[in-house]
Amino acid sequence: MDSQSYLSELFSLDGRVAVVTGGSSGIGRAVAGALARAGASVVIVARRETELAAAVEELTKDGCRAAWASADLGTREGVRAAAERAAEPFGEPDILVNSAGINLRPPLDELGDDVWDATMAVNLEAPHLLGRRFGPGMAERGFGRIIHITSQQAHRAFVQSGAYGVSKGALESLARSQAEAWSSHGVTCNTLVPGFVMTPLNARLSSDPERVAALAARTMVGRNGLAGDFAGAAVFLASRASGYVTGQSIFVDGGFSVH
Ligand SMILES: NC(=O)c1ccc[n+]([C@@H]2O[C@H](COP(=O)([O-])OP(=O)(O)OC[C@H]3O[C@@H](n4cnc5c(N)ncnc54)[C@H](OP(=O)(O)O)[C@@H]3O)[C@@H](O)[C@H]2O)c1
């Protein structure tokens, strides 16, 4: 067997359908691009249509099969609409990536019900509802991959973790519950855990060169994360190669969490 065939057997996503929430920006955009370039037909989900269309255009120009669905994952109705729209272009997904997330960061003693509810809705409830919608079908077909993007704040407090850290800790628990429910039917559920990644989510922190340098120094690799750093791990977790990896949290953080 030549090396291309071997790699393809392990990692190719040809014929797979993927739904990536938050696929119009940052980590989700990089992950959507990686899955599409590895062969999957990818539907990206977010609210802003201009950004969605731009991301799909970039992928289509690159020869990928991609489509977008606009919906607000902050409400149950929005999540239901997102799921139906996402399944339209290429059919029911084999791979679900939950990257859409918000981090509003008020100090804990000023954290109002509105911030709490919005954070839990987008970061935690939407991944659960999308899993409930797509997981059983994956199990019935005997193959599925669910990948959540959590955060180092699932493991430690960091820059006003507030509701955000709670939502990400629970998201890692959700991955384990989903893994328990569906792994015996070929559906693995895992999380990728970023450290500090230079994306629009961190616009405020990223614009402070001293903070950026201090955070880079806390990694072992010596720099902060880039969205593209998630490509390889996402393809691995979406592929046949990761069939015996489930319920796990995989840190893609340049050693931040162990330094
Ligand atoms: N950057 C970091 O350092 C870092 C660290 C740890 C964890 N993470 C996690 O990684 C994931 C991706 O973050 P990122 O840095 O790539 O963020 P980003 O660049 O801000 O992207 C967030 C994405 O989520 C979408 N989104 C937000 N709210 C939504 C809603 N209500 N409905 C539908 N889509 C929504 C956004 O599109 P619209 O605004 O158009 O809806 C966008 O596509 C998040 O879960 C985040 O918590 C990031």
Describe this structure in words.
By secondary structure, the protein is α/β, with parallel strands linked by helices. It has one domain: Rossmann fold, CATH 3.40.50.720. It has 9 helices and 7 strands. The chain has helices at 3-11, 26-37, 49-61, 76-87, 113-141, 162-182, 203-206, 209-217, 231-238, and strands at residues 17-21, 41-46, 66-70, 95-98, 144-149, 187-194, 249-252. A 7-stranded parallel beta sheet has the order 3-2-1-4-5-6-7, with helices on both faces. β2, α3 (49-61) and β3 (66-70) form a beta-alpha-beta unit. α5 (113-141) packs parallel to α6 (162-182). The longest helix is centred in the middle third of the chain and has 29 residues, at 113-141. It starts with a helix and ends in a 7-residue tail after the last strand. 45% of the residues are buried. The mean pLDDT is 97. The structure holds NADP nicotinamide-adenine-dinucleotide phosphate (NAP).
